[in-house]
Amino acid sequence: MKSTGQVEVVNGLIYYEFYKQKFEAPVLVLLHEGLGSVAQWKDIPQILFNDLHWSILVYDRTGYGKSSPAPSDYPPDYLRHEAQIVLPGLLQQLKITNCHLWGHSDGGSVALLFVAQFPDLAMTVVTEAAHVMIEDISRQGIAAIKVLYPQKFRLPLERFHGSKTDWVFYHWANTWLSEKFFGWNMFGELMEIRCPVLAIQGMDDEYGSPEQVYKLRELCRAEVWLIEQCGHTPHFQLKDRVLSRITDFLSKNHSATKR
Predict the structure, then answer these.
(1) pTM of the model
(2) Backbone angles phi, psi at 134, to 5 degrees
(3) Which of 25, 65, 123, 128 has a Cα-to-Cα distance from 165 of 20 to 30 A?
């Protein structure tokens, strides 16, 4: 059963879609990428709902999709703000006391920061193309897409973000390209993570090198899956393989926590 709505979190409305099983079931939260939204997950939530037999929550971050525009004082380190303030507020409003997390790109970074801060609320984490540090390849990829944005990407993104589209793009791009952000990382938080982590990355990811997942393996003992001939969006580029691996990981580790 799918429900939609908006709840107030930190003086703004967060839009969500909740695919809720009729019986008691684990909850998996999907966290979108830096230019993403609920709608851009396409049919992934419904597939997971059917195949996992879990409840699936997907939401638009502050300023994205159908959520409220970001306030003027929205912090530059938005990943920590979303992980430490917005996501726990959303879960509290929806009366979700523990969950599993799957985050793509920026969403993966938010998921890791969340579980480091709130270890009792998350049981497992799947990251896909997450950033745990800034690399030259990250800045180069973002600088390249920034040049193309006005002619190539603005109009497609307006379908999902409407009048907020320029803010969504330039806040994301300018944050990562800022000199103040060059030394950004989450190494300290990663060492606090105790739950199982599956870290997925395409070998041809244009925004991050394999060092991202190697650092996850080093600092929080993540299970690493590097995929050859795959870029930044494995869940669409190799959909069946990726969904199968993720659902197996989630099912196995959820069962283990219940023993």
Answers:
(1) 0.97
(2) -90, 135
(3) 128
